[in-house]
């Protein structure tokens, strides 16, 4: 496992880290014992960073992380998020009283005295423009409740706006072969300002594994069923904003990327990690086998300049026009 510095912070995090949205819920049936085994396997392989949120299973993923990392609080870092347990458009959700309450609740569920990275969870851009919430986060950092803070964003515009606040140490961004726009302008500027980049949904909700057919059926509690067209939250969070059937068809055209790299999953992750501006990739998982598959990226070859050019052209000519939602 290789480790990378999170922006200008002192945190060194594993380049392959993991997100815990899936084990908290909203990705179909999960089994807690299997989730704990998967977390243990990841840490055995050198993973020292996990991303979660207070709304993943109403805090269930935070509780699972508390169990899995007990006794490893100094060596295994946790990032969590806040604001979506309230009305994200209400300024009161970002008041000092509210943020403190969210923070204390997460600390309790995580069984920790400090959160390593505390992130605002995809807030509306008007909240970022106002900026008052960053002053609250500065206070929590000074008090030792949080080590660093950042923002999970939906769009490049939001990310660029966050770079104006000197305390921001990380941006969490949707980025994958199907969603390449953030790499053009946002990542280089973030790198210049010492802001780390965490990549969520690197496999486009599973499309880039190449395992789906157009006939795939998802459970009612899986966001890939109930948010397929952005019915519940930003459409970009599901299948990178692509219509599902179109995404499946496009993934077939990408089968070649896995030919020399084990499979499409590892190839898609390798493409992300080849970027010099990215701190880590945080794929999701529900079992040990998925953790093992994702970890396999560390041993596959990088893309050649010709392959990178081919993937960029593919995105520009065949993918970009079909992405829905602002990003």
From TrEMBL:
Stored Gene3D superfamilies: NADP-dependent oxidoreductase domain
Pfam families linked: Aldo_ket_red
GO molecular function, one term: oxidoreductase activity
InterPro entries: AKR, AKR2_Oxidoreductase, NAD(P)_OxRdtase_dom_sf, NADP_OxRdtase_dom
Signal peptide: none
Domain (NADP-dependent oxidoreductase): residue spans on this chain: 16-315
CDD domains: AKR_AKR11C1 (cd19086)
Name of the protein this chain belongs to: Aldo/keto reductase
Organism: Paenibacillus rigui
Lineage: Bacteria, Bacillati, Bacillota, Bacilli, Bacillales
